[in-house]
């Protein structure tokens, strides 16, 4: 649909959960795996890559657990 896209702008609220509860704005909790501050980003992305290569329902709980710990 879009050819030769060179730049993308992402707009989202980047307030962590405790602060966003006080202001009423939505939060990014858990942190996305591509955030530098995500502690389990590497593990989560490795599990997602393995799941993508060989999909199995049995691997999904491990992916979700790692993502939620981030």
Q: Would you list the SSEs in sequence order as H and E?
A: HHH
Q: What is the tally of beta strands?
A: 0
Please estimate the helix content: 40-55%
Average of the residue pLDDT scores: 79
Ends distance: 33 Å
**Number of helical elements:** 3
Low-confidence stretches: none
The structure class reads: mainly alpha
Computed over alpha carbons, the radius of gyration is 15 Å
Bulk shape: flat
The description of the largest β-sheet is: none
Strand content: under 5%
Description:
This protein has helices at about 15-25, 40-55, 60-70. It is mostly helical and about 70 residues long. The mean pLDDT is about 80. It is flat. It is built from 3 helices and no strands.
List keywords for this structure.
3 helices, mainly alpha, flat, 70 residues, 0% strand
Task: Write a short abstract of this structure.
Residues 16-38 are annotated as: Disordered. The protein is mainly α.
């Amino acid at each position: 649909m879009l050819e030769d896209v060179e730049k993308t702008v992402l707009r989202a609220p980047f307030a962590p959960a405790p602060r966003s509860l006080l202001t009423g704005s939505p939060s990014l909790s858990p942190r996305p795996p591509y955030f530098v501050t995500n502690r389990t980003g590497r593990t989560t992305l490795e599990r997602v890559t393995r799941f993508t290569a060989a999909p199995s329902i049995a691997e999904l709980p491990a992916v979700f657990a790692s993502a939620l710990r981030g």
